[in-house]
TrEMBL record:
Record-annotated FAD/NAD(P)-binding domain positions: 5-338
Family statement drawn from the similarity comment of this UniProt entry: Belongs to the class-I pyridine nucleotide-disulfide oxidoreductase family.
Enzyme category, top tier: oxidoreductase
Domain Pyridine nucleotide-disulphide oxidoreductase dimerisation: 357-466
Matches recorded under Pfam families: Pyr_redox_2, Pyr_redox_dim
Organism for this UniProt entry: Duganella aceris
InterPro entries: Class-I_Pyr_Nuc-Dis_Oxidored, FAD/NAD-bd_sf, FAD/NAD-binding_dom, FAD/NAD-linked_Rdtase_dimer_sf, Lipoamide_DH, Pyr_nuc-diS_OxRdtase, Pyr_nucl-diS_OxRdtase_dimer
Name of the gene: lpdA
Cofactor section: FAD
Protein name, UniProt field: Dihydrolipoyl dehydrogenase
Miscellaneous note of the record: The active site is a redox-active disulfide bond.
Entry's EC annotation: 1.8.1.4
Catalytic activity: N(6)-[(R)-dihydrolipoyl]-L-lysyl-[protein] + NAD(+) = N(6)-[(R)-lipoyl]-L-lysyl-[protein] + NADH + H(+)
GO molecular function ontology, one term from the record: dihydrolipoyl dehydrogenase (NADH) activity
Location of the protein in the cell: Cytoplasm
Length: 476
């Protein structure tokens, strides 16, 4: 007889482990199944985010930024560094240590909240029975279990170029980009999205000559145009060679390099040879191996699990969250959906507001935004007011030695309700939270302008940008 649970979560990424913990807090018997393993074959919960995504990339971004500061910016602070050298193995070791801390932390949280963890891959074994949906677990923790409610949180995989599969040695996904054992002299990056820009920034700081090839004719098309324009200027100034409107025709791996043939924005046939190539052209839902057909779980034409606004699938008591369903592929979006589903199962009113999900690109300068962009408001015919404030006029930014960028507010022209906030500059990832809170409470720009902000702080730029809506900044 299989082990029975009220809720079984398939996947222990940000959405899955959070859903499992919240369901357990609500009094359900909960199991979570996850197949990720560490180099010793042990469990490594946390999904792509913890193992080969958000967490290790931030660790390398921080380390590489320290290295760049030591080589350049420290001198301005009166700190002379001689004999600076890169210890890449130690940098990677630190990154792995950070990952392990997060893996272990999730296992601790499971134990604390009495979530039963199974190390393996779960698949549907058939349609629902009186005991719930039967699941088969293969791998180290092979078993048979069933759940009255199933939450699918299997995440996503990197999308490869046709005819150029990832080997993680020459052609790299995010996984290989985080683990290169040497700094490539020439690094190619296909795709100027979040992963491409972050990984390109890491290896540029460490000494690579980085060329970014982007298929779209515009840079960061989802970002506010004013912010994107500033970002392109800063990244180019740093040394990233960003090429827009490129059409990749062929990628050929050699013994020690990769040849990329493409058509540039002028329609000219171009060939480039790189020591390593990072391909970052999006991600695909991870539904292979789920045996969705055995339970009758509906997938859409792209392989995503089909869900409604409340993450319900076509099957009773089967839910899906995170990268495996519609919406932005963001860890915090998955977490919010996980909590919402657990609370909905408990009869509460779980909800995820897509309009106030923040976005962040952890480059330097950081880029963060929430709500609509100026181009979206124009396209929708919304009457709005805009106000911005540069970090150049912010005392804390001057003291930090990082005055790049600005904060920009967009507010309804009649009601003054905040419609969008866009930041490029130091600690944008932290500053955006104030805007998220404000928008959740339907705040006006005047509300932020009237709130006292600590001095000196970067957050004063947020207040000043709100003041700029009425053209009454105090420090610019």
């Amino acid at each position: 007889m299989s082990k029975q649970f009220d809720v079984v979560v398939i996947g222990a990424g940000p959405g899955g482990y959070i859903a499992a913990i919240r369901a357990a807090q609500l009094g359900f018997s909960v199991a979570c199944v996850d197949a990720w393993e560490n180099e010793k074959g042990g469990p490594a919960p946390g999904g792509t985010c913890t193992n080969v995504g958000c967490i290790p990339s931030k660790a390398l971004l921080q380390s590489s930024e320290h290295y760049e500061h030591a080589g350049h910016a420290f001198k301005d602070h009166g700190i002379d560094v001689s004999g600076l050298s890169l210890n890449l193995p130690q940098m990677l070791k630190r990154k792995e240590g950070v990952v392990k801390q997060n893996n272990d932390g999730i296992l601790y949280l499971f134990k604390k909240n009495k979530v039963t963890f199974f190390h393996g891959r779960a698949a549907f074994a058939g349609a629902a029975t009186a005991e719930g949906y039967p699941l088969t677990i293969t791998g180290p923790g092979a078993d048979s279990i069933s759940g009255k409610h199933i939450i699918v949180a299997t995440g996503s995989n990197a999308r490869a170029l046709p005819g150029a599969p990832f080997d993680e040695k020459l052609i790299l996904s995010n996984t290989g980009a985080l683990a290169a054992d040497a700094v490539p002299k020439k690094l190619g990056v296909i795709g100027a999205g979040v992963i491409g820009l972050e990984m390109g920034s890491v290896w540029r700081r460490l000494g690579s000559e980085v060329t970014v090839l982007e298929g779209l004719p515009v840079f960061l098309g989802a970002v506010d145009e004013q912010v994107a324009k500033e970002a392109l200027k800063q990244f180019t100034k740093q040394g990233l060679s960003i090429n827009l409107g490129c059409k990749i025709s062929k990628v050929t791996p050699g013994k020690n390099d990769v040849t990329v043939e493409y058509e540039n924005s002028k329609g000219e046939a171009t060939t480039a040879v790189f020591d390593r190539l990072i391909v970052s052209i999006g991600r695909t839902p991870n539904t292979d191996g789920l045996a969705a057909d055995k339970a009758g779980l509906a997938l859409d034409e792209r392989g995503f699990v089909a869900v409604d606004d409340h993450c319900k699938t076509n099957l009773p008591n089967v839910w899906a969250i995170g990268d495996v369903v519609r919406g932005p592929m963001l860890a915090h979006k998955a977490e919010e959906e996980g909590v919402a589903v657990a609370e909905t199962i408990a009869g509460q009113h779980g909800h995820t507001n897509f309009n106030t999900i923040p976005w962040v690109i952890y480059t330097s300068p950081e880029i963060a935004w929430v709500g609509r962009t100026e181009q979206q408001l124009k396209a929708d015919g919304v009457a709005y007011k805009a106000g911005s404030f540069p970090f150049l006029a912010n005392g804390r930014a001057r003291a930090l030695g990082d005055t790049t960028g600005f904060v920009k507010f967009l507010a309804d022209a009649v009601t003054d309700e905040i419609l969008g906030v866009h930041i490029i500059g130091p600690m944008a990832s932290e500053l955006i939270s104030e805007a998220v809170v404000a928008m959740e409470f339907k705040a006006s720009a005047e509300d932020i302008a009237r709130i006292c902000h600590a001095h000196p702080s970067l957050s004063e730029a947020t207040k000043e940008a709100a003041l700029a809506i009425d053209k009454r900044t105090l420090n610019f």
